[in-house]
Design brief:
globular; nine-stranded parallel β-sheet; disordered C terminus; 17% strand; 16 strands; three-stranded mixed β-sheet; alpha/beta
Amino acid sequence: MSKQFLLGAAIAAHQAEGNNIHSDFWALEQMENSTYKEPSLDAVDHYHRYEEDIRLLSEAGLNAFRFSIEWARIEPEKGRYEEKEIEHYRSVLECCKKYGITPVVTMHHFSSPKWLISQGGWEDERTIEAFAKYCRYVVERLGDKLEYICTINEANMGLQIAAVAQDIMRKMGIAPQIGMKFELPKEIKAKKAGEAAVFGLDPEQTVNTFLSLRTTEGDILVMRAHEAARDAMKSVCPHLKVGLTLSLFDIQAQPGGEGEAAKLWDADFAHYLPYIQGDDFIGIQNYTRKLVGKDGALPTPEGAEVTQMDYEFYPEGIGHVIRHVSESLSIPILVTENGIGTDDDTRRVEYIRRAIAGVKSCLEDGIPMIGYIHWSLLDNFEWQEGYEKTFGLIAVDRATQKRAPKPSLKYLGNLGKEISHEILL
């Protein structure tokens, strides 16, 4: 079937909409001794300014907009749904149609309703049914305006965070061997107790947000939630194309590191294959590469350019990841995030130039692709980092909420004209 190649940009609800008051992250941002540098507050007010943002996207020559529907708005209390919020997202979808934009909707992008975390969050069996029920509710009301749906953003992120935490603890000399018990430092225990109190949990109970350190059981629970949501939505609207997204490094084995590289790729990607074979596409997200030696990941090469997030500037990574994923999956690939945190937009332009070159090479070699969606449309709230990291194609003055498109926005739109807009999926 002939299909238009999607070229666009993305946001996430909690990072852009503002005043997501019923969510878990809002609660954590507001708590005493929060680990967040600042609270999200009204963010960049995309909730009220979505039409301006979609218009700017369209005027730049882009044809796709990835955004998330916020579960905490739709179901602020367990079992109580807000019809006015469904109508809000209906308006966003109708605005996309007005400007000729294909929406790519994510049902869960990190943030969850506060009540979900209070009942056990992303390590609790009840979350599977709760998530599927919410997804079904949304699709029953908006499914006729939807085509591409990502169930869960970066479903592997909890394991990636856990791996980083284990590495840090090991370097601190407090990582236990398997089966051993150990005492957390006093300040970490106090932080965990404070977070538990926010959700009405006992001090010893673990707070399991989507970005908490994930267990192997929790990892599989997330995939089961994906499957349940996918099947629930497609039972209502069979025309929907449903997948999930994964955070993937361009893992590059150095001499002697082939075995460790294979282990890392399995942890990030390969072990999920049984749960996504029935999907209509896979969303892949890449920002940099990871060099791997015989003892594991290596530091960034000395003298390499790094971004605001201390990632190595490596735009070639997305093309390499597309090829690697295509070796194991025959379903179409959609790049759902790829971008750079920088205050120098000329570097963003260069990053886009080289990233798109990699995408075009994959298309020319016949790899089935749906499109490329850049992160992010707007400078917005970067979770614990607050507002100082700037990934956007559009700058936002938060004092006035005035938008200022950067040259990179138009550059990406112009590049789209060079990509064949008709590909066979």
